[in-house]
Amino acid sequence: MTDLDIRGVFSPSLIDYPGKIVSTIFFNRCNFRCPFCHNPELALDKDRNDPINPNEIIASLVKRKKWLDGVCITGGEPTLHKGLEEFISRIKNEGFS
Ligand code: SF4
Questions:
Q1: Does 1 fall in a domain?
Q2: What DSSP string describes 6-64?
Q3: Quick check: is 44 in a domain?
């Protein structure tokens, strides 16, 4: 999963997934340039945070499973990243929505 460029995790979030308490994961980069972009630093690859290892994110989710219902994946544009499907499968396999 080395192609996943994740730059942030916000947790817990009560607003990103209706009815669920989640961790929100922010992917870097976007191939669109919407003038109303809510995360332009991610979309333009100007985020100053270091990439976060996806394995560490999953380990952290599992540790806090008792308090989390699910995961919200956003960016940037997550579908640009190779390995997204495997990453999501691993999250689902841990029992998260
Ligand atoms: S992250 Fe969303 S809002 Fe921002 S440029 Fe990409 S598609 Fe547009």
A1: no
A2: EEEEEEEESSSSTT--EEEEEE---S---TT-S-HHHHTT---SPPB-HHHHHHHHHHT
A3: yes
